[in-house]
Amino acid sequence: MHRRTLIAGALPLAAIATLPRAGRATWPARPVRWIMPGGPGGNPDILSRLWAQKLGEHLGQGVVVENRPGASGIIGTEAAMNSPPDGSTFLFGYNQLVTLNRLLFRRLPYDPDRMTRVCLVSDTPFVMLVPASLPVRTVPEFVAWAKARPGQVAHGTAGLGTFSHLSGELLKQAAGIDLLHVPHRVTPRNELMSGTVQLAFEPNALAITMTGGPEAKVRALAVLADEPEPQLPGVPLMKEFYPGFVVIAFHGIWAPPGMPREAVDGMAAAMAAVAKDPWLQSRMAPLATRIIAEGPAALDRAMAADLALWTPVVRERGITLD
Fold first, then answer.
1. Which one of 87, 100, 198, 236 is CB 3.0 to 4.6 Å from 263, fit for a cystine?
2. Three-class secondary structure of residue 246 per DSSP
3. pLDDT tens digits, residue range 233-290?
4. Residue 123's closest CA among 303, 311, 307, 276?
5. pTM to 2 decimals?
6. 107 contacts 97 by C-beta, under 8 angstroms
7. Whose CA is closest to 47, among 291, 231, 300?
8. Residue 86 gets which letter from DSSP?
9. Domains defined for the chain, CATH in brackets
10. DSSP letter assigned to residue 210
Protein backbone atom coordinates (compact mmCIF):
# COMPACT_ATOMS: atom_id res chain seq x y z
CA MET A 1 0.00 0.00 0.00
CA HIS A 2 1.28 3.47 -0.87
CA ARG A 3 2.39 5.79 1.93
CA ARG A 4 -0.09 8.45 0.81
CA THR A 5 -2.93 5.92 1.06
CA LEU A 6 -1.84 4.95 4.59
CA ILE A 7 -1.78 8.55 5.74
CA ALA A 8 -5.21 9.28 4.28
CA GLY A 9 -6.60 6.14 5.84
CA ALA A 10 -5.25 7.16 9.24
CA LEU A 11 -7.13 10.45 9.27
CA PRO A 12 -10.44 10.43 11.16
CA LEU A 13 -13.49 11.48 9.19
CA ALA A 14 -13.87 14.61 11.26
CA ALA A 15 -10.34 15.68 10.39
CA ILE A 16 -10.95 15.10 6.69
CA ALA A 17 -14.08 17.21 6.88
CA THR A 18 -12.09 20.11 8.25
CA LEU A 19 -9.36 19.99 5.60
CA PRO A 20 -9.00 23.28 3.73
CA ARG A 21 -10.46 23.47 0.24
CA ALA A 22 -6.99 23.24 -1.34
CA GLY A 23 -6.54 19.83 0.26
CA ARG A 24 -9.64 18.32 -1.29
CA ALA A 25 -10.21 16.95 -4.74
CA THR A 26 -11.83 19.91 -6.51
CA TRP A 27 -11.16 18.97 -10.14
CA PRO A 28 -13.04 19.51 -12.35
CA ALA A 29 -14.58 22.69 -11.04
CA ARG A 30 -15.98 23.60 -14.48
CA PRO A 31 -16.77 21.93 -17.83
CA VAL A 32 -13.80 20.37 -19.59
CA ARG A 33 -12.74 21.29 -23.12
CA TRP A 34 -10.89 18.87 -25.36
CA ILE A 35 -9.26 20.51 -28.37
CA MET A 36 -9.11 17.98 -31.21
CA PRO A 37 -6.70 19.14 -33.97
CA GLY A 38 -8.49 17.29 -36.76
CA GLY A 39 -11.68 17.69 -38.73
CA PRO A 40 -15.09 16.21 -37.91
CA GLY A 41 -15.69 12.60 -38.91
CA GLY A 42 -12.11 11.38 -38.86
CA ASN A 43 -11.03 8.49 -36.66
CA PRO A 44 -9.47 10.73 -33.96
CA ASP A 45 -12.65 12.83 -33.89
CA ILE A 46 -14.86 9.76 -33.53
CA LEU A 47 -12.68 8.43 -30.72
CA SER A 48 -12.61 11.74 -28.89
CA ARG A 49 -16.40 12.04 -28.93
CA LEU A 50 -16.96 8.48 -27.73
CA TRP A 51 -14.61 9.02 -24.79
CA ALA A 52 -15.92 12.53 -24.07
CA GLN A 53 -19.48 11.27 -23.78
CA LYS A 54 -18.66 8.69 -21.13
CA LEU A 55 -16.10 10.89 -19.40
CA GLY A 56 -18.71 13.61 -18.94
CA GLU A 57 -21.09 11.13 -17.37
CA HIS A 58 -18.35 9.88 -15.06
CA LEU A 59 -17.21 13.34 -13.96
CA GLY A 60 -20.63 14.91 -13.71
CA GLN A 61 -19.30 17.77 -15.85
CA GLY A 62 -19.65 18.48 -19.53
CA VAL A 63 -16.74 17.46 -21.78
CA VAL A 64 -16.83 19.47 -24.99
CA VAL A 65 -14.85 18.43 -28.07
CA GLU A 66 -13.69 21.43 -30.11
CA ASN A 67 -12.35 20.71 -33.59
CA ARG A 68 -9.40 22.91 -34.57
CA PRO A 69 -8.02 21.31 -37.77
CA GLY A 70 -5.30 22.55 -40.08
CA ALA A 71 -1.57 22.59 -40.77
CA SER A 72 -0.89 18.95 -39.83
CA GLY A 73 -2.59 19.46 -36.48
CA ILE A 74 -0.36 22.40 -35.58
CA ILE A 75 -3.20 24.93 -35.28
CA GLY A 76 -5.16 22.92 -32.73
CA THR A 77 -2.10 21.84 -30.78
CA GLU A 78 -0.85 25.41 -30.49
CA ALA A 79 -4.27 26.57 -29.27
CA ALA A 80 -4.36 23.88 -26.61
CA MET A 81 -0.81 24.47 -25.40
CA ASN A 82 -1.36 28.24 -25.19
CA SER A 83 -4.47 27.80 -23.04
CA PRO A 84 -4.26 28.65 -19.33
CA PRO A 85 -3.20 25.58 -17.29
CA ASP A 86 -6.31 25.83 -15.14
CA GLY A 87 -7.49 22.24 -15.47
CA SER A 88 -10.20 22.92 -18.02
CA THR A 89 -8.48 22.62 -21.41
CA PHE A 90 -6.72 19.54 -22.76
CA LEU A 91 -5.51 18.30 -26.12
CA PHE A 92 -6.98 15.04 -27.43
CA GLY A 93 -4.38 14.21 -30.05
CA TYR A 94 -2.20 11.64 -31.71
CA ASN A 95 1.48 10.88 -32.17
CA GLN A 96 1.97 12.92 -35.34
CA LEU A 97 1.62 16.08 -33.23
CA VAL A 98 4.45 15.22 -30.84
CA THR A 99 6.83 13.10 -32.91
CA LEU A 100 6.47 13.53 -36.67
CA ASN A 101 5.78 17.26 -36.59
CA ARG A 102 8.97 18.00 -34.69
CA LEU A 103 10.93 16.02 -37.28
CA LEU A 104 9.19 17.29 -40.40
CA PHE A 105 8.99 21.00 -39.55
CA ARG A 106 11.97 23.18 -38.75
CA ARG A 107 9.97 25.26 -36.30
CA LEU A 108 6.84 24.57 -34.30
CA PRO A 109 4.81 27.10 -32.30
CA TYR A 110 4.75 24.62 -29.42
CA ASP A 111 7.39 22.50 -27.70
CA PRO A 112 6.46 18.79 -27.49
CA ASP A 113 8.91 18.34 -24.61
CA ARG A 114 7.00 20.87 -22.49
CA MET A 115 3.55 19.44 -23.18
CA THR A 116 2.13 17.91 -20.00
CA ARG A 117 1.59 14.19 -20.46
CA VAL A 118 -1.78 13.04 -19.13
CA CYS A 119 -3.01 9.74 -20.61
CA LEU A 120 -2.20 7.22 -23.33
CA VAL A 121 -5.74 6.53 -24.51
CA SER A 122 -5.53 3.92 -27.27
CA ASP A 123 -3.51 2.67 -30.19
CA THR A 124 -3.89 0.88 -33.50
CA PRO A 125 -1.25 -0.66 -35.79
CA PHE A 126 -0.73 -0.17 -39.50
CA VAL A 127 -0.95 -3.05 -41.95
CA MET A 128 1.03 -3.76 -45.11
CA LEU A 129 -1.40 -4.21 -48.02
CA VAL A 130 -1.06 -5.23 -51.67
CA PRO A 131 -3.61 -5.87 -54.44
CA ALA A 132 -4.91 -9.42 -54.34
CA SER A 133 -3.99 -9.66 -58.03
CA LEU A 134 -0.30 -9.22 -57.23
CA PRO A 135 1.63 -12.51 -57.55
CA VAL A 136 2.91 -12.39 -53.95
CA ARG A 137 1.55 -13.78 -50.70
CA THR A 138 4.30 -13.06 -48.21
CA VAL A 139 6.63 -10.20 -47.30
CA PRO A 140 9.73 -12.01 -48.62
CA GLU A 141 7.93 -12.68 -51.92
CA PHE A 142 6.98 -9.00 -52.19
CA VAL A 143 10.54 -7.87 -51.47
CA ALA A 144 11.91 -10.21 -54.13
CA TRP A 145 9.26 -9.02 -56.60
CA ALA A 146 10.07 -5.36 -55.86
CA LYS A 147 13.83 -5.90 -56.16
CA ALA A 148 13.27 -7.20 -59.67
CA ARG A 149 11.48 -3.92 -60.49
CA PRO A 150 13.54 -1.12 -58.91
CA GLY A 151 11.74 2.22 -58.89
CA GLN A 152 8.66 0.77 -60.62
CA VAL A 153 6.56 -0.48 -57.69
CA ALA A 154 4.05 2.23 -56.83
CA HIS A 155 3.67 2.92 -53.12
CA GLY A 156 0.40 4.78 -52.61
CA THR A 157 0.12 7.05 -49.57
CA ALA A 158 -2.09 9.70 -48.03
CA GLY A 159 0.65 12.27 -48.59
CA LEU A 160 4.23 13.24 -47.83
CA GLY A 161 5.26 12.75 -44.21
CA THR A 162 2.26 10.63 -43.22
CA PHE A 163 2.60 7.30 -41.44
CA SER A 164 1.59 5.54 -44.66
CA HIS A 165 4.47 7.29 -46.46
CA LEU A 166 7.09 6.83 -43.75
CA SER A 167 6.22 3.15 -43.36
CA GLY A 168 7.24 2.66 -46.99
CA GLU A 169 10.47 4.58 -46.41
CA LEU A 170 11.16 2.31 -43.44
CA LEU A 171 10.59 -0.75 -45.64
CA LYS A 172 12.97 0.65 -48.27
CA GLN A 173 15.64 0.96 -45.60
CA ALA A 174 15.02 -2.42 -44.03
CA ALA A 175 14.65 -4.48 -47.22
CA GLY A 176 16.95 -2.56 -49.55
CA ILE A 177 14.30 -1.94 -52.19
CA ASP A 178 13.42 1.10 -54.30
CA LEU A 179 9.77 2.13 -54.37
CA LEU A 180 7.97 4.83 -56.37
CA HIS A 181 6.17 7.13 -53.93
CA VAL A 182 2.74 8.11 -55.24
CA PRO A 183 1.10 10.57 -52.80
CA HIS A 184 -2.68 11.12 -52.78
CA ARG A 185 -4.90 13.66 -51.09
CA VAL A 186 -6.61 10.82 -49.21
CA THR A 187 -5.88 7.16 -48.65
CA PRO A 188 -5.40 5.36 -52.02
CA ARG A 189 -8.07 2.78 -51.34
CA ASN A 190 -9.50 2.55 -54.86
CA GLU A 191 -6.07 2.64 -56.49
CA LEU A 192 -4.92 -0.26 -54.34
CA MET A 193 -7.97 -2.36 -55.18
CA SER A 194 -7.56 -1.68 -58.88
CA GLY A 195 -3.83 -2.40 -58.81
CA THR A 196 -2.85 1.13 -59.88
CA VAL A 197 -0.62 1.15 -56.83
CA GLN A 198 1.01 -2.05 -55.64
CA LEU A 199 1.66 -1.24 -52.00
CA ALA A 200 0.01 0.68 -49.18
CA PHE A 201 0.22 0.85 -45.41
CA GLU A 202 -3.13 1.55 -43.79
CA PRO A 203 -4.58 1.61 -40.26
CA ASN A 204 -5.91 -1.61 -38.84
CA ALA A 205 -9.63 -0.86 -39.19
CA LEU A 206 -9.37 0.01 -42.88
CA ALA A 207 -7.16 -2.99 -43.54
CA ILE A 208 -9.68 -5.33 -41.94
CA THR A 209 -12.48 -3.87 -44.06
CA MET A 210 -10.52 -4.04 -47.32
CA THR A 211 -9.27 -7.60 -46.87
CA GLY A 212 -12.49 -9.17 -45.56
CA GLY A 213 -14.33 -11.84 -47.52
CA PRO A 214 -13.36 -14.28 -50.27
CA GLU A 215 -13.88 -11.66 -53.00
CA ALA A 216 -11.59 -9.07 -51.39
CA LYS A 217 -9.38 -7.25 -53.87
CA VAL A 218 -6.71 -6.48 -51.28
CA ARG A 219 -4.38 -8.81 -49.38
CA ALA A 220 -2.71 -8.17 -46.02
CA LEU A 221 0.91 -9.29 -45.89
CA ALA A 222 1.94 -8.16 -42.40
CA VAL A 223 0.68 -6.37 -39.31
CA LEU A 224 3.07 -3.71 -38.06
CA ALA A 225 2.37 -4.44 -34.40
CA ASP A 226 3.92 -6.05 -31.33
CA GLU A 227 1.27 -8.75 -31.18
CA PRO A 228 -1.00 -10.52 -33.70
CA GLU A 229 -4.25 -8.90 -34.77
CA PRO A 230 -7.21 -11.18 -33.90
CA GLN A 231 -9.30 -9.78 -36.75
CA LEU A 232 -6.54 -10.60 -39.27
CA PRO A 233 -5.93 -14.27 -38.43
CA GLY A 234 -2.89 -15.82 -40.01
CA VAL A 235 -1.32 -12.49 -40.99
CA PRO A 236 2.24 -12.41 -39.60
CA LEU A 237 3.92 -9.56 -37.79
CA MET A 238 6.29 -7.42 -39.80
CA LYS A 239 8.84 -7.58 -36.98
CA GLU A 240 9.21 -11.31 -37.69
CA PHE A 241 10.94 -10.31 -40.94
CA TYR A 242 12.49 -7.01 -39.83
CA PRO A 243 13.02 -6.62 -36.07
CA GLY A 244 11.67 -3.38 -34.66
CA PHE A 245 9.37 -2.74 -37.63
CA VAL A 246 6.40 -1.69 -35.50
CA VAL A 247 4.27 1.24 -36.66
CA ILE A 248 1.56 2.28 -34.23
CA ALA A 249 -0.82 5.22 -34.33
CA PHE A 250 -1.63 6.17 -30.77
CA HIS A 251 -4.06 8.64 -29.26
CA GLY A 252 -3.38 10.54 -26.08
CA ILE A 253 -4.32 13.44 -23.88
CA TRP A 254 -1.91 16.28 -23.21
CA ALA A 255 -2.29 19.49 -21.24
CA PRO A 256 -0.63 22.91 -21.36
CA PRO A 257 2.70 23.27 -19.56
CA GLY A 258 2.22 23.82 -15.84
CA MET A 259 -1.08 21.97 -15.53
CA PRO A 260 -1.74 21.25 -11.82
CA ARG A 261 -1.06 17.70 -10.73
CA GLU A 262 -4.60 17.37 -9.39
CA ALA A 263 -6.02 17.91 -12.89
CA VAL A 264 -3.51 15.54 -14.52
CA ASP A 265 -4.09 12.76 -12.00
CA GLY A 266 -7.84 13.37 -12.04
CA MET A 267 -8.10 13.10 -15.80
CA ALA A 268 -5.88 10.00 -15.94
CA ALA A 269 -7.88 8.27 -13.20
CA ALA A 270 -11.19 9.18 -14.83
CA MET A 271 -10.04 7.82 -18.19
CA ALA A 272 -8.96 4.55 -16.56
CA ALA A 273 -12.40 4.24 -14.97
CA VAL A 274 -14.25 5.05 -18.20
CA ALA A 275 -12.17 2.48 -20.10
CA LYS A 276 -14.04 -0.27 -18.26
CA ASP A 277 -17.44 0.90 -19.53
CA PRO A 278 -19.11 -1.83 -21.66
CA TRP A 279 -20.81 0.71 -23.92
CA LEU A 280 -17.51 2.38 -24.75
CA GLN A 281 -15.81 -0.97 -25.33
CA SER A 282 -18.56 -2.03 -27.72
CA ARG A 283 -18.16 1.20 -29.73
CA MET A 284 -14.38 0.92 -29.83
CA ALA A 285 -14.36 -2.67 -31.12
CA PRO A 286 -15.45 -1.86 -34.72
CA LEU A 287 -12.66 0.74 -34.88
CA ALA A 288 -10.08 -2.03 -34.28
CA THR A 289 -8.44 0.21 -31.72
CA ARG A 290 -6.92 -1.14 -28.52
CA ILE A 291 -7.99 0.59 -25.31
CA ILE A 292 -5.07 1.44 -23.03
CA ALA A 293 -6.07 4.34 -20.74
CA GLU A 294 -2.79 4.53 -18.82
CA GLY A 295 -1.25 7.60 -17.24
CA PRO A 296 1.59 10.02 -18.03
CA ALA A 297 4.43 7.47 -17.85
CA ALA A 298 2.83 5.27 -20.53
CA LEU A 299 2.30 8.26 -22.81
CA ASP A 300 5.89 9.35 -22.30
CA ARG A 301 7.17 5.87 -23.23
CA ALA A 302 5.03 5.79 -26.37
CA MET A 303 6.34 9.19 -27.44
CA ALA A 304 9.96 8.16 -26.88
CA ALA A 305 9.56 4.92 -28.85
CA ASP A 306 7.89 6.74 -31.74
CA LEU A 307 10.60 9.37 -31.88
CA ALA A 308 13.34 6.72 -31.83
CA LEU A 309 11.69 4.90 -34.73
CA TRP A 310 11.16 7.85 -37.06
CA THR A 311 14.15 10.12 -36.38
CA PRO A 312 16.66 8.09 -38.47
CA VAL A 313 14.11 7.56 -41.27
CA VAL A 314 13.23 11.23 -41.64
CA ARG A 315 16.82 12.45 -41.32
CA GLU A 316 18.40 9.91 -43.64
CA ARG A 317 15.74 10.45 -46.30
CA GLY A 318 15.77 14.25 -45.90
CA ILE A 319 11.99 14.44 -45.64
CA THR A 320 10.57 17.86 -44.76
CA LEU A 321 7.24 19.66 -44.92
CA ASP A 322 8.55 23.23 -44.86
1. 87
2. coil
3. 999 999 999 999 999 999 999 999 999 999 999 999 999 999 999 999 999 999 999 9
4. 303
5. 0.88
6. no
7. 291
8. S
9. 30-123+249-317 (3.40.190.150), 125-240 (3.40.190.10)
10. H
